[in-house]
């Protein structure tokens, strides 16, 4: 599957964090590219993107708002957990 097709399919699922915790999605969804194992200047592939609502991506309770460690403390989830949940949602599970 091409990256463009994959990205279009990602756009059809909702925020994986909201789904995991049974929350109402807050705002439109965005792709967060997993940076685990990447250098600062590198952009990861769209195959390594997770789907998050605005709040969970850039909001005060989100990945970029809290930072990696506080996000993990709050949700007990890191980028690889988010990626696993996204892949599960893409597979229909």
Would you kindly provide a written description of the structure presented here, covering whatever features stand out?
By secondary structure, the protein is mostly helical. It has one domain (3-34, 44-90). Helix content is 45%, strand content 11%. The protein contains six helices and two strands; from the N terminus they run ααββαααα. A two-stranded antiparallel sheet has the order 1-2. The longest helix has 12 residues, at 79-90. The chain is globular and about 35 Å long. The two termini are 19 Å apart. The relative contact order is 0.20. The model has no long low-confidence stretch (mean pLDDT 89).
How does the SSE layout of this entry go?
Elements: H1 3-10, H2 16-21, E1 29-33, E2 49-53, H3 54-57, H4 63-66, H5 68-75, H6 79-90
Q: How many runs of DSSP E, i.e. beta strands?
A: 2
Q: What characterizes the major β-sheet? A: 2 strands, antiparallel
Strand content: 5-15%
Taking all residues together, what is the mean pLDDT?
Answer: 89
Cα distance spanning the termini = 19 Å
Order of helices and strands: HHEEHHHH
Rg computed from alpha carbons, rounded to a whole number of angstroms = 13 Å
Low-confidence stretches: none
Please state how the strands of the largest beta sheet are arranged side by side. Answer: 1-2
Overall geometry: globular
Given the helix and strand composition, which structural class is it?
A: mainly alpha
- Work out the helicity level: 40-55%
Count of discrete domains:
1
> Helix count, per DSSP?
6
């Amino acid at each position: 599957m091409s990256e463009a097709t994959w990205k279009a399919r990602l756009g059809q699922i909702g925020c994986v964090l909201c789904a995991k915790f049974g929350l109402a999605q807050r705002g439109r969804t965005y792709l967060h590219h997993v940076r685990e194992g990447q250098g600062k200047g590198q952009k990861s592939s769209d195959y390594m993107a997770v789907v998050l609502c605005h709040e969970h991506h850039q909001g005060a309770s989100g990945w970029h708002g809290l930072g990696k460690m506080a996000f993990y403390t709050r949700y007990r989830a890191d980028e690889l957990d988010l990626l696993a949940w996204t892949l599960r949602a893409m597979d229909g599970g």
